[in-house]
Amino acid sequence: MASHKKRIAYFYHDAVGNFYYGAGHPMKPHRIRMAHSLVLNYGLYRKMEIYRPILVEDQKMTMFHSDDYVHFLQSVTPDNINDYSRELQRYNMDVDCPVFDGLFKFCQMYTGGSVGGARKLNQGNADICVNWAGGLHHAKKSEASGFCYINDIVLAILELLNYHARVLYIDIDIHHGDGVEEAFYNTDRVMTASFHKYGEYFPGTGGVKDIGVDKGKKYSINFPLMDGIDDQSYQSIFKPVMGKIMETFQPGAVVLQCGADSLAGDRLGCFNLSLKGHAACVAYMKSFNVPLLVLGGGGYTVRNVARCWANETGVLLDEKLSEEIPYNEYYEYYGPDFNLHITPSNMENHNTKKYMEDTKIELFECLSSLPKPTVQIKQMPRSIDIEGAMEVKEGDPDVRISQADEDKMVTDEREFYRDDKDQDKPTQMQFA
Question: Could you write out the DSSP letters of every residue in 364-393?
Fold first, then answer.
């Protein structure tokens, strides 16, 4: 495959790390700031265009989500939550999906980066766009789910469909990408491919026989996995399956969700991938030279999430990062070794060679009989018109984020737990 220097646009909002789901909640937006700090201190920012996404307006969100659900997210706050008891139940807002300060603004920020990246790809101004704050794949049309409120991925794909006949979505999060699959389950213009833990595990969907309906039949590809899958096993299925999909579906653009909870040692995960094994998926999809939108997702051991996404930013840039993590404001998190890469455990891999081979053959048979996609470009979804998506209210929209601005970032003090059981407690770090 021909190789050329990719033009990469990186979306980051300096306030995204300020949001706080609540005490003890595993989802920590602070991890995005930590990843960004590594991107800065490894010097990767010099090789990309860095953009601050605008906040996506409510009417843009209703291209997928229901009006009443978006209005609820816009209206509810921790102060008035008692006025919305019925809606909280209706929209699945519970312990997993709490109401917290600035909830709607948080949704606007992470969605803005994903939709802005899609728009930039459509304009031909970048080959790859990155938004580590995005990738919240569980959100449904009218309900929150699995720490996700607005499905930025669906909205980004809808934007891509305005310029591309076919879009491929790939999910390497440990959890099934159910929200995205459900949104496009009956269309042949979007293929979804998810590699995930299956069986008594959230969200409980994504069996190998879940292949879509109507026009979308055979356009949903699921590879259900069991505990302990390692790098070698994962690549033995990912590359052949994705190679076959690229050959048969021939997408005009690819969206890759890089949830880091599939890494070894994740707080909520049970896979055994190293950073290299995870990044190999990114490198492989990059090699096809198709417009690529790269998003974040799950990941709950925050120091490893930051390592993962910084490393994969380097992979996209063809930059090999030094094993020794550069000094940064979160340096203590990476002790005691302060190395970039993590060591997988010796946990048992419950995915037998026979199981993986049998599942792969079943998926190949499905893909081999794939109908030719219909290309009806006349009736396209409404465009998400975010002209000026890269505009910043203060300063030049095309100026990279300065170190001065970086220094102004303030982290919610409650992110630093004092509980010894919290995996993310910084090493030998004291807080007043």
Answer: HHHHHTPPPPP---SSPPPP---TTTT--S
Nearest to 169 by CA among 129, 120, 214, 219: 219
- The label of the residue with tokens 């996609």 reads 373
* pLDDT of the residue at 414: 58
More confident position, 346 or 392: 346
Q: Is 138 a catalytic residue?
A: yes
pLDDT tens, position by position, 109-161: 999 999 999 999 999 999 999 999 999 999 999 999 999 999 999 999 999 99
- Determine the number of helices (DSSP H) and then strands (DSSP E) in the chain: 12, 8
User: Could you tell me whether strands 49-51 and 167-171 are parallel, antiparallel, or unpaired per DSSP bridges?
Assistant: unpaired
Report, in this order, helix, strand and coil percent for the chain, each rounded to 5: 35, 10, 55
Give me the catalytic one of 36, 138, 196, 278: 138
**Nearest one of 99, 101, 104, 28 to 65, comparing CA atoms:** 104
| Residue environment code for 38-57, b if the CB has 16+ CB neighbours within 10 A, otherwise e | bbbbbebbebbbbbbbbbbe
Residues 395/275, Cβ–Cβ less than 8 Å = no
| Sheet (strand 167-171) strand order | 49-51, 8-11, 128-131, 292-295, 253-257, 167-171, 190-197, 220-225
Tokens of 257: 């969700």
In this predicted model, which residue has the larger pLDDT, 403 or 359?
359
Query: What's the rounded Cα separation, in Å, for the pair 104 and 149?
Result: 9
Token couple for 184: 């496009």
Q: b or e along 291-318 (b: 16 or more beta carbons within 10 Å of the residue's beta carbon)?
A: bbbbbbbbbbbbbbbbbbbbbbbbbbbe
Q: Is the pTM of this model over 0.85?
A: yes
Q: Estimate to the nearest angstrom the gap between the alpha carbon of 137 and the chain centroid.
A: 7
